[in-house]
Amino acid sequence: MSQRGIAVLGSTGSIGTATLRVIARHVDRFRIVALTAFGNAALLREQARSVQPEYVGIVNRNGDGDPAWATGAECLVEAATRPDVDIVVNAIVGAAGLQATLAALRAGKRVALANKESLVIGGEFVLRACSEGGGEIVPVDSEHSAIVQCIGGRPASEVSRLIITASGGPFRDWDAERIARAGIQDALNHPTWNMGRKITIDSATLANKALEVIEAHYLFGLPYDRIDVVVHPHSIVHSFVEFVDGSVLAQLGFPTMELPILYALTHPDRISDAPARRFDPAAASPLTFEPVDLERFPSLALGIQAGCTGGAAPAVFNGANEEAVCLFLGGTIGFGDIPRAVDSALSLLGDAPAESIGDVTAADAAAREHVRHLFRQSGGASKSPAPVYV
Ligand code: NAD
Ligand code: MG
């Protein structure tokens, strides 16, 4: 059997390191040919020593790192488009992942997509790059992986509704006033998943679920009124698909990203693996579900609204949210300021058009600048802090 060449972008992060663990169990099938990271040179060097890739890129060398490594943001596209790469695992956090997704799809690669922000901000353009380049997107996000598995290749005309599950995050039981005053450690304390800092904050505001609704809209081609969200605190049911005859399928398992990562590599096939924990219905009981409260989690409502508005609104939502999360993690603004900043950016910039990818990246930049300006004015952030989640 010939090995498939893999590029892991964002190899030093939570999804990146999980991907390396998964691939280490299947070296007969997969060979890592490229690794990239933002700036964690020490871990990147250790990974490079272990998997011996042909190509290593670090966006921000900052004095350390190997002189043979490629540097700068261009390394992401370079790694993603190499001829020896069959599958690009895009595990970069944030809008910084967009260009690599576009380039990989245009080059006809399979993109195992963890970087949901690519689809949120570049939706139509990402889909076009995919069809024009002959590429393929297989989601890594556990909810979307569940949906792909439930749909099982049936045509879109047979799907009537998606029900995306949300853990509810650490503030599921908190009242609105207490949520607004939550501290950084409170927000980083996710009940069921151990993830990078940015997505962990997004899981506390539920902005992550809004990103996932928009991601699902583009991946599965369903209008927003046929994509629902339900809170399921234990993260056992990863999502549901309702079909036109009323039948509902769900995909279940104890929370681990290793399964959706492996499935994104092998789809539509399944291969034998040794998960940390086999499913046990009795141990998983009881499975409970509750409606989502949009009043206490305004970021979710704002994001879904941005999705419905279309154009550059999702890019504004995402850019403003990324900037606000960065300011929150830098200790400059409060938790309640995150949705406030996003709301303000959408009110001002949300009707921007998206005729080109340039429009989308301009909207992203304008949203970030607006959020910085907002808190500069109110005496909050005096300058944009260094990104604290890379
Ligand atoms: P992380 O912060 O742990 O890792 C991010 C990786 O991206 C790191 O390797 C970092 O070096 C790299 N990176 C950061 N900024 C970059 C930049 N400007 N340019 C190039 N590389 C950069 O994040 P994560 O939790 O692994 O999440 C990665 C992506 O996967 C996100 O889009 C997230 O929403 C998605 N995701 C994560 C999980 C999870 O369990 N962690 C689950 C579902 C989806
Ligand atoms: Mg998810």
Give a structural overview.
The protein has 390 residues and is of the alpha/beta class. 45% of the residues lie in helices and 15% in strands. The protein has helices at residues 14-24, 41-51, 74-80, 98-106, 116-133, 142-151, 176-180, 184-188, 197-205, 207-220, 258-266, 281-284, 298-309, 313-329, 337-349, 357-377; strands at residues 4-9, 30-37, 55-58, 70-71, 87-90, 110-113, 136-139, 159-166, 227-231, 237-243, 248-252, 290-291. The radius of gyration is 20 Å and the shape is globular. It starts with a strand and ends in a 13-residue tail after the last helix. The protein binds nicotinamide-adenine-dinucleotide and magnesium ion.
Question: Which labels suit this protein?
Answer:
single chain; 390 residues; seven-stranded parallel β-sheet; five-stranded mixed β-sheet; 12 strands; globular; disordered C terminus; binds nicotinamide-adenine-dinucleotide; binds magnesium ion
